[in-house]
Specification:
The chain is an alpha/beta fold and 277 residues long. The protein has helices spanning 2-15, 22-28, 30-46, 50-64, 174-186, 201-229, 253-263, 266-276; strands spanning 67-68, 73-74, 79-81, 87-88, 93-94, 99-101, 105-107, 119-120, 125-126, 131-133, 137-138, 143-144, 149-150, 159-161, 166-169.
Length: 277
């Protein structure tokens, strides 16, 4: 029992930089209190003392703002950060080293008896306000974005966002990501890293363009090789080097440059193009 408590405390230091010392964690972290209460109520539930387990669980909910049904199964080193408004249903199963934030619901979608709540694998992170509903499985290492509503299973290492939840990062895409980085470095684009942790629509569009450029390069190489095999000579073409991409605001001087370009003034247009370059 004391080893489990020690693990629960130490995992908080690993995942919350605001934690300063053990006494603070033991006395001021409602997520830890809720987990400790659940260790007791889950044992009582297994011993058949169901009313007592529910009564202590209700007290823990009043004390911490976190509702965990005594029948739920929690893995080791489970961390609830902040915790207010968290609801974990009776048949929910949570693996080891999982982290969930405030406002998360692991709920059911049916009034039927039996398994009706989700199962989380190991190392799963569920963002604030997310709702994971139904007897679905969330794979190891998956990430559920804040306020997402997930009603279908999620494969391991995937990232899910939105309502309804949709996968924005597929597992096993390391080779494709390396290709994208190589093309990005080739054209001098230095902002690809913004999508490494949390994809967004703009980064997704850029990724699609990088994938398309990579495919075109491969196709052109194949075509040139086939033409050379037929005996044709292809002159060496030195492609111009691409400078680093830079996006400027449409206000201020660039606004003026844009107006000059629209007037059709060649000299002003060339001058504006130099400024943009």
């Amino acid at each position: 029992m004391f080893n489990r408590i020690k693990e629960d405390v130490l995992c908080i230091f690993d995942r919350d930089p605001a934690a300063r010392h053990t006494f603070e964690v033991l006395t001021a972290y409602p997520g830890l209190h809720a987990v400790l209460f659940h260790r007791l109520t889950h044992s009582l539930w297994g011993w058949g003392l169901k009313w007592l387990a529910r009564f202590i669980s209700a007290f823990a909910r009043w004390f911490t703002g976190i509702e965990i049904h005594p029948g739920a199964v929690l893995g080791r080193r489970f961390f609830i950060d902040h915790g207010m408004g968290v609801v974990i249903g009776e048949t929910a199963i949570i693996g080891d080293d999982c982290t969930i934030y405030h406002g998360v619901t692991l709920g059911g979608t049916s009034w039927e008896k039996g398994k009706r709540h989700p199962t989380l694998g190991n190392n799963v992170v569920v963002g604030a306000g997310a709702k994971v509903l139904g007897p679905i499985e969330i794979g190891d290492g998956a990430r559920i974005g804040s306020n997402a509503v997930v009603v279908k299973g999620v494969p391991a290492m995937a990232t899910v966002v939105g309502v309804p939840g949709r996968i924005v990062k597929q597992p096993g895409s390391d080779d494709k990501e390396r290709q994208r980085r190589a093309i990005a470095e080739k054209i001098g684009f230095d902002a690809y890293g913004t999508s490494a942790d949390m994809p967004d629509p703009v980064a997704h569009a850029i990724n699609c363009m990088l994938d398309h450029i990579h495919a075109m390069d491969k196709k052109m190489e194949g075509m040139c090789g086939a033409i050379k095999e037929l005996g044709a000579e292809i002159g060496e073409l030195h492609l111009p080097e691409l400078d680093t991409c830079e996006l400027r605001s449409s206000m201020g001087e660039d606004d003026l440059s844009g107006e000059r370009l629209e007037t059709g003034d060649d000299e002003a247009g060339k001058e504006a193009e130099k400024k943009v370059d």
